[in-house]
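re: ur question from earlier - yeah i can do the single chain one, its not a big deal. heres the input i used so u can compare w yours
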Amino acid sequence: MAFSSMAFLFGFLPVVLLCYFLIPGRRRSVRNGVLLLFSLAFYAWGGLRLLPVLLAGCLLNWAAGLVLTPGRRHRRGVFWAAAALNLLPLLYFKYTGFLLDNLNALGLELAVRDLLLPAGISFFTFQAVSYLADVYRGTIPPERRLSRLALYTAFFPQLLQGPIVRYGDFGPLLAERRETVSDISAGGVRFCFGLAKKVLLADALGAAAAGACGAGERLTVGLAWIGSIAYTLQLYFDFSGYTDMALGLGRVFGLPLPENFDYPYIARSAGEFWRRWHITLSRWFRDYVYIPLGGNRCSRRRHLLNLLAVWLLTGLWHGAAWTFVLWGLYYAALLMGEKYLWGAALERMPSPLRHVYALLLINFGWVLFRAGSLGQAGTVLAAMLGFAPGGLWSGEAEYYLRQYAWEWLAAIPAALPVKIWLGRPLERRRETGSRAAAAVMAFGPKFMALCLLGLSAVRLLSSTFRSFLYFQF
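and the output i got, formated as C-alpha cells:
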C-alpha cells in the first residue's frame, strides 16, 4: 500500500489516526500496540504470505539481542549467526535470480524461479543488523519487550523505503514521548508537501523520462538529455517525497525520524552529493562496513580497497543487476579520484563550475541506475554525447518540454533550498516585530499544504496510480 494511493489516504490513514488518538496519551503501551497492529496490517496488504518473513526476523533479533548482553558467553558467534540469518532472506529473495541467470550465461541450465521480493526487505534487514551490532558493541542495551522491537522493525511510515533508523534513537521514544498539536500540524504539512512532490512532480517527470529514454531509433541528443534530466528530477522527488511523508507521519505519532535528504543537487562534488543523498544509508555503510574495514586510517591501497568494497555493496544493495554493480563502481572511481587525483584542482575551481561538474556526473550516474541493461545505458549515454540515431533534435523532444512545461518550471526551484533562502529574511523581520512576517511564517506553509493536498487529490483521481521507485529495493 503506497502513501499516494487512495486506499491509504482515504482509508488506512484516517482509521489508524482515529484509533491511535482515541487512546489516552498516558496509555503509551496501548498506543504502541495500535501502531504495531496497523503496521503489520499495512505490510500484509502487499502480500500476507510474506508477513512471516518480517515476524520471524523480529523474533530472531529480540532473542539474539538478549543473548548479546555484555558478559554472556559466545556473544561473537551469536552476533555473526544472527546477522547471517537476517541477511539470508535478503540474499535469497533478491539475488537468487541474478546468480542463476549469470550461471546460465556461462553454459549451465538451471531453472530460474520468479521470487516475489518482500517489500522493504533491504531497509528492515539493515535496521535489524544495526540493532544487533549496536547491542553487541554495548552502544545500546537489548530491548526486552518483543512488541517494542517489532514496532521498530515494522513501523509503517518508514517500513518500505526508510529512512534507516537506529534503535538507540527510536527505542527510548517508545517508552516516553508526547504528541503535541504543533508537532501534529507540522507533520501534516510535511506529509502534504511530500505527497505533492510524488504526485504532481515525480509522476509527470517520470512519464517524460520513460517516453524520452524509450524512443529507440527516434532517440536524439536533445531527447536523451531531456529523458536523463527528467529521471534525475523524478528520482529525487519520488524518494524525497516518500521521505517527507514518512517523517511527517512519524512526527504526528511523536516518533521523529532522521532526515534522509539535504538538497543533494546543490552538491559540488560526488562526495558531497552522497553526504546529502540517502543520508541514513550512507551512514549505515560508514558505521557498519567502512569503519570496521579500517576506513581511511590505513594505507592508501587498503583505503582504496575499502572504498571499492563499500560501493560494490552499495550498488548491489540497490539492485541485482550488472547496471547497479557498474553504478556502484562508478561512484567508487569518482570518490577515489576526488580523494587522490583531482580533488585539489576541484577545490580551486569556481563554485558554479563545481556545481556543473557534480550535476553532470550525477546525471550520467542516474542513466546507469535507470537502465534495464548495460546496452541500454550505453545507448542513452552515447546519445547524450552526440552519437544519437535520430540526430540532434526532434519534434518529440519539443513535445516533452511543452507537455510538461509547468512541471519543469516547478521542479527546479523545488529541488533547491528556496524555503531556507526565503525563511531567513522573514525570520529577521519577525524578530524585529513584523506581524506580517510572523503571519506568513505561521500560516503560509499550512495554506500551501492545503492547496497542494487539494491539487494532489485531483491528480490522483484523474490519473493512473504509479508506485514509488524505491519500492523495488
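The mean pLDDT is 92. not sure if urs matches, ping me
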